[in-house]
Structure formats: C-alpha cells, structure tokens
Amino acid sequence: MALATLGGVGRLPLAPGTWGSLAVLPLWWLLRPRGLVVYSLLVLGLTLAGLMSAGSAAEALGRRDHPAVVIDEAAGQLLALAWLAPSWPAGLLGFLLFRLLDILKPWPLKALEHLPGSFGVMADDLAAGALAGLAAWLLLWLGGYGNG
Question: How does pLDDT run across 52-65, given as a tens digit for each residue?
C-alpha cells in the first residue's frame, strides 16, 4: 500500500494525482542530467513497482482506480519529462500537459483504463505521459527553446 500511494502522498487532500505528479519532479531534476540510461532505469523501476502494487492496492481500497493510488501518476509524470532537459519552463510545460491529459483522458487513454488489474491502473498514465512528453518537446522546439 505504501508503494502504491508513494508513502502516503496519495492520501493528501483535494488532488491526489497532482500531488503524486509533483512528488517526483525532484527526481527528474536530479536524475535526468545523469543521462537517459539512468533516468530510464528510474522510470522502468517505478513502472514495475506500479505493476506489482497498484492493482492490489486499488482492490484493497475498494475501487478499481482509487485516487490514493498515485504511483501511476508518478510513473506517467516521469515519462512525460524523459525527453526534456531540466529547466523550469520544460518542467512546468511537461507537468501541465501530463496533468491535462491525465484528467481529461481523451481517446485512447480512457480505453486503456479498462485493462485488467495493475495494467489498467498504469497504462493510461504511461500513455498520457508519453503523449505529454512528445507534445511538450514539440512545443518547446517550435518555440525555439530546443530541448528545454
């Protein structure tokens, strides 16, 4: 349960998914400059931890995608920032785009929620992270900011 809620971050009031996304921003800031291999291992490790814990935690909490389970938001947020160099404009844009996609869940993100168990909890957030990261990278590039 502690893993799925990021040590209780998911139990913070009002917007647990946003708190879960904010909680991992320091990891991006610290580890992204160490290269994509190190950063990818972080994202992969968090994704595997989510696959092992999210479904059972949600089931124990009595709801398929319980708001207290935020390890999916953490993994998705880190994936959204994977292509962006650590800078405050890139971080802010990646954060806002990921939260927007995670909240609105346009097709096909909504459909991914219906996958069974932990896959259903994690898949939509990882897909939202990939789309948000691509959109942020493209917007920064079009705006002349390069990668960050």
Answer: 998 888 888 888 87
Identify the burial level of 57 via C-beta atoms within 10 angstroms of its C-beta, where 0-12 means exposed, 13-18 middle and 19 or more buried: buried
Cα(101)–Cα(1) distance, integer angstroms:
25
pTM of the prediction?
A: 0.91
Q: Mind listing the pLDDT tens digit for each residue in 102-127? A: 999 998 888 898 888 888 889 999 99
Q: How far is residue 107's CA from residue 1's CA, in Å, rounded to a whole number?
A: 29
